[in-house]
Amino acid sequence: MNDVLHSLTLDGLLEEHRRTHPHGIAAVFEHRVFTYPQLADRVIQLGNALQASGVGVGDRVLWMGQNTHAVLELLIACARIGAQFCPLNWRQTAAEIAFVIDDLEPRVAIWQDQEIGATVLAAREAASFKPAVWVAFDSHGSDSYDAYVASGSRFDAMAAEGRTSDPSLPCMIMYTAAFTGRPNGAMMSQTALLWQNLSLVDIQALRSETVFLNSGPLFHIGTLMVSTAVFHVGGTNVFIRRTDARAVAEHIHNHRCTLAFLVGKTQHEIVELNRGGLYDLKCLRSPSLSPEWDAMVTVTPERSLFGFGQTEVGGPVVWQYYGFGKCASRNGRTGPVAMVRILDADDNEVAPGETGEIVIRGPTVMHGYWRRPELNAQRQRGGWHYTNDLGRRESDGSLSFVGPKTQMIKSMAENIYPAEVEGCLRSHPAVADCGIIGVPDDKWVQSVKAIVQLKPGSSATREELIEHCRAHIASYKKPRHVEFIEKLPRTAAGAVDYATLDKLFGGGNYPGGATRGA
To answer: Which CDD domains match (predicted)?
Structure first.
C-alpha cells in the first residue's frame, strides 16, 4: 500500500496546480493552449484510455514523434497508472526504431506522420513485436491522438478511492547512446524526476511565471528535465516540433518565453535573422553570448547548467553553479541530491588528483536498464551507480570530468585509462584528434600507443608528443609509440572506432581478454 500521507507525485502536482493555478497556462503547442485544469482533465482521460487498451503497472507506452504537449501528458498519465513512458529518438533510422520496438515491447505506440511517418511505418513493418494499439498523433480521424484521449473516461477513480500513484516505480524509459553496440533503456522513477526538478528550480531560478520554450529534443534528458521542473513550479511549457531559428524567434516573441534550450549555432542564426528587429526577444533571459545577441535579449548573471551527469542519473549531479568561479574544476561541485566518489579498478576511493571511475548514489539514480540484468549487476554494484566515465577530485574538493572510460590498458601493475592520455594529447596545439590503444608487450603486458591525427598545416614529431605527455601526466601513462593517421575511424555513434585501430595498429592483450569496442 502506498504511503499516501507522505507521497509526492507528478499527477498529484498536476491536481495541486489545478487548484493553485486555475487560470495558469500549462502547455502551448502550435495554435493550442492548455490551462492546468484542462491538462489535468486530459491526463485523467488519457490514463483511463491507456488502461482500457490493456496498459497496466510496468507496461510500456512508446512515443515516436517530435516535441509536443503529448510528451508531458503521456509522461504524467503513465506515471499515474504505473506504466512506463518512452520518448523515442525520432532522428533514428527504421532499423534503429525497430530495435527499440522489439526491445521495449510496448502495448501502445503513438506515432507522428509529419516528417518521420515513412520511417516509423518502415520500422513497424520490420519489427518482430507488434504493439496491439497504434495511435496516429497528427491524424484527424478516429485513430488520432486527440480521439484516443477523448475515448477515456472522465471519472477519476484514484481520487474517489483516496489512492495515489507509486512514485518509487519506474515511470519513464529513456534510451541511451549505443556505446556498447546497442542502446539501453534507463528506467527513471517519479521520485528521481521530482528530486532533479527541485535542483533545477534553484539553479535556473524557476517560478510559476517562467515560460520555457521546448526547442531541444525531448528524447534527451537535457531538455526534458527542464520541462518537468517548469511543470513542477506551475510554469508554462511552450513546445515547437524541432529546433528552427525562425520558429524559435517567433515563439519567443509571441509567447514571451523567458527561458529556452538553445545552442550557440541557433543563437547566431537568430542574430542574423533578427537584424531588422522584427522579433522582440527582450523577454528571454540568457547568459551573455555576443554584443549582437546581448542587445536582443535580457542578459542575466551566469547560472551555469554545465557540469557532469548522464541520463542514468537524471541529468547533471555535479554543477558549476555550486562553486562557479571558485573552484579548480571545470565541472564544479556535487549538487544537493547526490553523492559522488572516484574509484580505482578495485573499487577503492582514490586520492585527490588521481583519476578513477565516477560513481554516484542518490534519489535521482535510475532503477536500472530495461531488460539488462547482467549490465545492471555490473553498473549498480555495492550500492553505487558506476558511470563508465572517468573523473578526478581536485584538492579543493571540486570534481573534474576526464572522459569516457574505454577498455583499460594494463602496464605491469598500473592501470591506464585511454581517455586521460587522449585528453592530454588533444591539448597539444598540433593535434586535431587521437585514439589510444594498448599493444602487447612482453615486459610490460601492454604498451601505450597513440594514433594521432594532426591539424591541417601543423606538424609534430613522435618524440615531441611523447614529451608533451610526460610533462602533463604521470610518466607511466605516456605513449611509448606514436603513429600518425590522416583521419581517425569513427563508429556510427560518432565515437573513435577503437576496434578498427586495434586491427590497423596491432592492439591487443587487454585485461581479461577483452576486445576494444566490444
So the answer is: PtmA (cd17636)
Q: Is residue 305 part of a domain?
A: no
Short-list 160, 231, 202, CA closest to 11 = 231
In total, how many domains does the chain have?
4
Residues 149, 175 within the same domain: yes
List 482's β-bridge partners, or say none: 450
Q: Look up the domain containing 384 and give its range.
A: 310-404
Do residues 449 and 483 make contact, with C-beta atoms less than 8 angstroms apart?
yes
Residue 304 in any domain: the answer is no
User: Tens of pLDDT along 315-360?
Assistant: 999 998 887 666 767 688 999 999 999 999 899 999 999 989 999 9
pTM of the model: 0.84
Report the alpha-carbon distance of residue 402 to residue 423 in Å, rounded. Answer: 7
- Residue-wise DSSP of 182-217: S--EEEEEHHHHHHHHHHHHHHTT--TT-EEEE-S-
Same domain, 180 and 152: yes
Distance of CA 182 to the CA centre of its chain: 16
Map residue 46 onto helix, strand or coil: helix
Residues in the chain: 518
Q: Where do we find the cell 583499460? A: 408
